[in-house]
Design goal:
Layout lengths: L1 H8 L1 H8 L2 H8 L4 H27 L4 H28 L10 H16 L2 H22 L10 H7 L2 H17 L4 H23 L3
Helix pairs in contact: 2-10, 4-5, 4-6, 4-10, 5-9, 6-7, 6-10, 7-8, 7-9, 7-10
Length: 207
C-alpha cells in the first residue's frame, strides 16, 4: 500500500521526531511548561490551516463518499482544537494574539499551497504525515503515562482509538487517489520535515 511505502521511506525522519528533545520531554513529563504553552499556541494556528486544507480537499471531490470522510476528518480537527482550548485556559494562553513562528508559517504555507493548487493526491500526501506521525508518537508515549503526568491529556488524545481511526481513513483516501510518483513522495517527505521543524521551534524560541 502506498501509505505504508511512504511511511517506510521517511523512517529516518520519524525516528528523529521520536528522539527529539521536545517529544522526549513530553514522554517523561519534563518538558518546560512555557515551551508547551508556545507549542499549543502554534499548533492552534497550524490546525486552522489544516482544517481549511480538508475543506478545500472536500471541495475538489466529485465522489460524495470521499467528501463525507473529509467531513469526519474536519470534525476530528475540531476535537483537537477543543483539547487545545482547554490547555489554553489552564495555561493562560491568549490564542487571539498568536504570531506564527517561521517554521509554523512555512508549514501552513506549504499545506495551503498544496490545497489550493495541488491535485487531490498531493493534498493527501501533504496531510497524512501529520496524522500518522502524531498517532505513532501517541502510541509510543502512552507507555510513559503515570499518575499525575503533566501531559497525559495530550498523550491520551493522540494514542486514542478515535484518532488512529481518523488517521487510517486519511491513509485509505491517499491510497485511493494517489500513485507513487515524485510529486506525492516530495509532498509527503516535505511535510515530515516540517513536522520535525515544528517540534524544534518552541525550544528555539524559549529563552
Amino acid at each position: 500500500m502506498l501509505h505504508k511505502s511512504l511511511w517506510r521511506q521517511n523512517a529516518d525522519t520519524t525516528q528523529r521526531c521520536l528522539e527529539h528533545a521536545f517529544v522526549r520531554g513530553l514522554a517523561d513529563g519534563t518538558l518546560d511548561r512555557d515551551v508547551f504553552r508556545q507549542y499549543v499556541a502554534q499548533d492552534v494556528f497550524f490546525l486552522h490551516a489544516f482544517f481549511k486544507a480538508y475543506a478545500l480537499a472536500a471541495a475538489k471531490c466529485d465522489d460524495f463518499e470521499r467528501a463525507r470522510i473529509f467531513h469526519e476528518l474536519m470534525t476530528g480537527v475540531l476535537s483537537e482544537l477543543k483539547l487545545h482550548a482547554s490547555y489554553s485556559a489552564k495555561l493562560d494562553i491568549n490564542l487571539d494574539q498568536v504570531k506564527p513562528y517561521v517554521a509554523t508559517s512555512a508549514y501552513t504555507d506549504f499545506l495551503l499551497r498544496a490545497a489550493w493548487h495541488g491535485s487531490l493526491a498531493e493534498i493527501m500526501a501533504a496531510m497524512v504525515p501529520c496524522m500518522r506521525l502524531y498517532a505513532h508518537i501517541g502510541s509510543e508515549l502512552v507507555t510513559s503515562l503515570r499518575p499525575g503526568h503533566p501531559y497525559q491529556d495530550w498523550i491520551k488524545a493522540y494514542s486514542s482509538d478515535e484518532f488512529r481511526q481518523l488517521c487510517s481513513r486519511l491513509e485509505s483516501l491517499l491510497d485511493e487517489v494517489a500513485a507513487d510518483c515524485p510529486a506525492v513522495r516530495d509532498a509527503y517527505g516535505h511535510a515530515m520535515q516540517c513536522e520535525l521543524d515544528f517540534f524544534s521551534a518552541p525550544l528555539e524560541h524559549h529563552p
